[in-house]
Amino acid sequence: MNLTLKIWRQKNANDKGKMVDYKVNDISPDMSFLEMLDVLNEQLINKDEEPVAFDHDCREGICGMCSLYINGEAHGPDRGITTCQLHMRMFKDGDTIYIEPFRAKAFPVVKDLIVDRSSFDRIQHAGGFISVNTSGNTIDANAIPVNKHDADKAFEAATCIGCGACVATCKNSSAMLFVGAKVSQFALLPQGQIEATDRVLNMVKQMDEEGFGNCTNTGACEVECPKGISLENIARMNTEYLKASLKG
Amino acid sequence: MSGILNSSIGRKFAMALSALFLMFFILQHFAINILSVISPDAFNEASHFMGTFWAVQYLLQPVLIIGVIFHFVMGFVLEIKNNKARQVSYAKNNGGANSSWMSRNMIWSGGFILVFLVIHFLDFWIPEINTKYIQGDMSGLLADGEGYRYFEELQHKFVPIWRVALYCIGFVFLSLHLLHGFNSAFQSIGANNKYTKGLKGFSKIYAIGIPLGFIFIALFHHFNH
Amino acid sequence: MALDSKIPKGPIADKWTNYKNHINLVNPANKRNIDVIVVGTGLAGGSAAATLAELGYNVKAFCFQDSPRRAHSIAAQGGINAAKNYQGDGDSTYRLFYDTVKGGDYRSREANVYRLAEVSANIIDQCVAQGVPFAREYGGLLDNRSFGGVLVSRTFYAAGQTGQQLLLGAYSAMNRQIGRGKIKMYNRHEMLDVVKVDGKARGIITRNLITGEIERHSAHAVVLGTGGYGNVFFLSTNAMGSNVTAAWKAHKRGAYFANPCYTQIHPTCIPVSGDHQSKLTLMSESLRNDGRIWVPKKMEDVEAIRAGKLRPRDLAEEDRDYYLERRYPAFGNLVPRDVASRAAKERCDAGFGVNATGEAVFLDFASAIQRYGKEQAHVKGLNENDAALVKKLGQEVVKNKYGNLFQMYEKIVDQDPYNTPMMIYPAVHYTMGGIWVDYNLMTTVPGLYCIGEANFSDHGANRLGASALMQGLADGYFVLPYTIGDYLSDDIRTGPISTDSKEFEEAEKEVKEKLNFFVTNEGKHSVDYFHKKLGKIMWNKVGMSRNVQGLTEAISEIKALREQFWKEVKVPGTNEEYNEELAKAGRVADFLELGELFAKDALNREESCGGHFREDSVELDGEQKGEALRNDKDFAYVAAWEYKGEPSDAVLHKEQLEFKDIELKQRSYK
User: Catalytic center at which residues (chain C) (predicted)?
Assistant: First the structure.
């Protein structure tokens, strides 16, 4: 199929940037979206033009590196997948496709479609861990049984890949699904209880300082999340936060 | 605890609490209003009680006013802050694919409700305050002294079609606002559990039923005066 | 230089304990004055960085991704082995040790493997304490699954995302230290050289991938946890950015490269769909527990299926060739990875491949769905003869077990694996070879350590499923922190290492010259053009099945391709900006050298062992006819190559492998 691409081009963080039109031809429906961009880039290199910069690494939907806003949706029109798992059979011959970076003040553009998501890392530095030494001299793994239901819920929250689709898709650029998932993972496990108060207060404080917006419960994040992280995690974070505020 | 209102979650929680309070108020308001359709006398009695009972007038009324103002001011503040969290907007954004129109446009439905409220205050509340506290007439009686004035005044207000139309539109927006807001308030205070599904159903009934009821009352009085 | 593996003396079960009792330690106050560089933040690098920082060293950690959490360890699906014996099924440290050595086809170092088995149980304790949400049973205790043809259930897992959960655990341990200021994290930085001062590794040169800035970083020791080199094949299950550059630069600075030809080709990957393909996706080994692998018996059926005239599920049972069950009745579909891969290739080479490219076999869940469906119907007291009901119930069971994999398959291939068999084909997955290290995990360059997939030591010629995660974390959490202390105890008086020395200056100059060459070269082909060509040579001639002629050709073809690359490669843009093509050019340049050494090593090893299959070394008759034939007399050694300029000039050093605790045997799965 033949497609028209409208792609955000921006030389670097200080450049203003603009949408630029490209054409690609003979795209196979079996290609992944990123392979289609590979074709475009090969074409650009051969024409001595600069290829489009985009983030990608594992190309199997788990590393969370790829981050494109395609036709007005984070990771494009398909559900439960990342951009690298989006296939061209979702599009029709002759389509015009808008490709933009994930946009948020807390995710400044680095170049073209690449954004800086280190704000997510900083939130994790603030409390996304259990303070246990890595000496191996802990108690036996089976010493504390964990209710299977809670363990499964903690796992579901922990499957977040930190791609930032929740922020990109949220009309308020809120990071609450991301933070809620991490807070929930630990809140649901006995190991996480000891530092629960400080964790949620510190992580939320850092989240606010990074310039993310506020959650208004539109639920868009849950729909666009490639891992289907549930809104329940935001509710749990809210409870944890209020509990912690009253305590501390 | 200090500075909780400076945190994103604290603000969210405050929005939810004020919303829950306002929703309870609306329910109460509706309960009295619907009496006007069933029995003008009962409506008059209830109105007089609400208008003269000290706890309602000096305790609940100020709380309500503060609640309303807080909900609006905080709503606008959050909207401005949230808009700042994305400085370059998308060339193409397909919000409809992942969220409801209502959830994305709370500021517009809320804004229209504010306009409506201003008119509503001018229509009812300011004349009431004027009668009761400026002119000092706490009797609640008609000028000729023949029974209570509340029902008469209500009917009178709904004679002009423009006002009825405005009310109808106002309540449509209230319905849109509540369709998202009701559930959202529960999510914000951290209630997302096995009851959530049931609550969603109830919230739809509330969000459509109550405004529809208000519209019915307005139309009823317009056509039956 | 003679290779000294520095294996401690004494009985195998006591070696590690004795070793720990006798090494030199660094006192906490002195640790504050010692810097360590860790390159790579996967399971090995991430856990090492966190632990070293926690011990008190000043750690600088580097990764080329935008966050340590994105290292490719994250993609590991199945699980992590540990000799916990929670199931009471007879597991023990010795048994895990034995299985790993045997699974590696007797080409790994006994002492290292024993230590790995010994610390494995600690890994699980550690991860649970960190909040890693492993799968649990209803009683609240940890669940185990069985994996890769061993006789016990020792694999701990978190659905199909075990690697992700373990990496996030290591990442959280890192975050704690980053928050404390003990780790300084350098994201989007690529290591481009190791700097040696007075014969010791004392720093690295990096390029900031955003700004293009070339930076010097010094330390008292350098640790590489930079993963495997499967991308030398262009197509593999590795991430797009996975590369050999850090390891190769270390090799060029004097670290020997061991057994480069040991590559694991994983049997169950989604087949290549066309020339546009950029990477391959793995379908977990666990699928072989329930899926049956087959191709049609008759050529006409193969053609009808390829042409779309015959649906695979309509082909009669007697016309199907369940070739693994036929050839290996004892293990059936659960033979080890290398055996399953070769068998698939054998059928496809014979013309029975079931897709348009002729390179795919079926992995069929129909009989599992039937079996589970009947079972469920029986349990629920429903009609076991109602075909539609049985199918529905069976599909539900399969969905619970493998739902995410099936969904992934459907998104990529656009076929519903519940109703039609999956198509799979082997793909490059893991490299057992890597930088040679001694018992201390130190390379032949003093002060330069290598951990995780990047080193060679623990998996021999074939890695067992769920052992990669175990090794990465064992190295990083529990082994390196001890062994590196022994070395660093000599450095407590050294003081900070200056980056102004002539060694740093020269290394930086070399790096800059190479980068400048790329951006100014007036070439005509993109980097990918060369990478794809290299991948084709590697896959066709140094792939699953190797012979003298093919390997000899590969060596000269790769050499020619390398020469062409240096003349004709075209890199757009400049050095002073984010430039992915430039980063790729450097990586492919190194792959073009490694590829040749890889083929040379494969040519040298005139035996079949594990993932390395030589057509000229097979059993000629008897029950094992046609199966791989090891040559323990001549090849029970580690081939460690010393860099001497061109790969063809590399010098072979042999580390003889001694098997004192395990008897060498032919692996049989018949």
Answer: 337 (proton acceptor)
DSSP B141: B
CB contact under 8 A, C126 and A121: no
Residue B70, in any domain of the structure? yes
Which has the minimum average pLDDT: A110-119, B17-26, B189-198? B189-198
- Chain A residues with CB under 8 Å of B184 CB are 216-217
A37 min Cα distance to partner chain C (Å): 11
Tokens at residue B204, please? 């739809």
The full set of domains in chain C, from first to last, is 15-262+432-491 (3.50.50.60), 265-428 (3.90.700.10), 512-635 (1.20.58.100)
DSSP-assigned states of every residue in A120-163 = HHHHHHTT-S----TTS-S--TTSS---HHHHHHHHHHHT----
**pLDDT of C623 above 50:** yes
Q: Does A231 touch chain B (CB under 8 A)?
A: yes
Q: Which domain holds residue B127?
A: 14-83+103-224
* B182 part of a folded domain: yes
Contact A219 B9 (CB under 8 A): no
Backbone φ and ψ for C32, nearest 5 degrees, come out as: -65, -20
Task: Report yes or no for ipTM above 0.85.
Answer: yes
Q: Do A and C make contact, counting contact as 3+ CB pairs within 8 angstroms?
A: yes
What share of chain B in percent tops pLDDT 70?
Answer: 99
Q: Which of B98, B184, B190 sits opposite A73 (nearest CB)?
A: B98
Domains in chain A with CATH codes = 3-111 (3.10.20.30), 118-247 (1.10.1060.10)
Number of other residues whose CB lies within 10 A of the CB of residue C490: 14
**CA neighbor of C632 nearest in space, from C667, C595, C592:** C667
Q: What Rg, from alpha-carbon coordinates, does chain A have?
A: 20
d(CA A146, CA A187): 12
Closest Cα in chain A to B104: A218
Q: Please write down the long-range contacts of B166-169, taking CB distance under 8 Å and 24 or more positions apart.
A: B166/B116, B166/B119, B167/B116, B167/B214, B167/B215, B167/B218, B168/B215, B168/B218, B168/B219, B169/B112, B169/B116
| Chain B environment of A239 (Cβ under 8 Å) | 189-190
Contacts C66 to A, Cβ<8 Å: 55, 65, 116-118
Mutation for A interface: B6, B7, B8, most A CBs within 10 A: B8
| Angstroms from A29 CA to nearest CA on chain B | 23
Note if C109 is an active site residue. no
Q: Do B12 and A215 touch (CB under 8 A)?
A: yes
Give C194-237 as a 3 state SS string.
EEEECCEEEEEEEEECCCCCEEEEECCEEEECCCCCHHHHCCCC
A146 vs C140, C171, C478: nearest CB = C140
pLDDT reading at C72 higher than 70: yes
Q: What is the pTM of this model?
A: 0.96
Q: What is the pLDDT of residues C423-465, one digit of tens each?
A: 999 999 999 999 999 999 999 999 999 999 999 989 999 998 8
Which DSSP state fits C270?
P
Could you say which of C337, C587, C614, C667 is catalytic? C337
Confidence of residue C78 (pLDDT cuts 50, 70, 90): confident
